[in-house]
Fold ATP-binding cassette domain-containing protein.
Amino acid sequence: MTDTLTCANLSKSYGGVVAVRDVGFTIAPGEAYGLLGPNGAGKTTTISMLVGLLKPDTGTVVVGGADLSADPMAAKAKIGYVPQEIALYPDLTGRENLRFFCRLFGLPRKAVRARVEEVLDLVGLADRADAKLDTYSGGMKRRINIGAALLHRPELLILDEPTVGVDPQSRKSILDGLERLVADGMALLYTSHYMEEVERVCDRIAIVDHGSIVAEGTRHELVALVGGADRIELTLDGDVDTALAKLRGLGGVTEAVRTAAGSVRLIAEGGRYLLPSVISTVDGIAAVTAVEVVEPDLEATFLHLTGNTLRD
Ligand SMILES: Nc1ncnc2c1ncn2[C@@H]1O[C@H](COP(=O)(O)OP(=O)(O)OP(=O)(O)O)[C@@H](O)[C@H]1O
């Protein structure tokens, strides 16, 4: 079976700065594939090359058998792209915006009415379809944007951080909607720096950092890379830097970093059994005011592979 997307050896530099380095992956029909990485990891640059907005320095992109550089029209017709920036008309209603995009995509006139109604249902906005866009919340605008990308029935939907700046209710609705699309056979490329979203939506995940894919696999495969190590989140009151230095020397602790929120994150084999030693190690230096032990997750994998946290 032909893969829905195959990209290989993609690289892009801006001036002397390498934004994407030798990136390649495939997405099978109906598969949800995630690019997980912090801001600046190169996700948007990668997507821009996949959708033909940015010419790669090196590499190839093939969408549903069509080579993007040799036959851009055929390749792009198979992709629905939801950019980070929302490009909609504030004075038009939701329905009118979608009709406008139908004309832009050259959908046959006769097909427009029914397709717009189908897509309004798909994104859960049928009841607000006659309200002007400038009365929509950020999340509703994002859902119309997703709808616009679906109008021409693409084989692959590419979304660039679709839940950034979106209220929790719309976030849930967006994720539920994407899961339904995948269940119905759509292939998805989902990028985010939110681990929970990528874990929930994606069958396979590439962890990206500094422009490269550092690991790829199912959630299960990626989490297995860190072995049985637990993550411990400590909130400390006192001399946190000294406490951190001491904790780095504690047996079993493989990683210890300070998070932006001011807490300390440890990765430790069998961490849940280490808590008494953790507390006694910082005794007299800082008080432990809160503690959370989390079993291995993608955050731990990211930390293990890159030495950094995803969000901080
Ligand atoms: N037009 C540009 N000119 C110069 N540097 C750029 C340009 N676009 C991106 N970069 C740099 O390339 C790197 C990758 O950026 P990119 O936007 O692809 O990352 P990202 O993972 O999508 O992050 P974000 O979610 O913040 O967009 C960053 O270091 C960024 O500063």
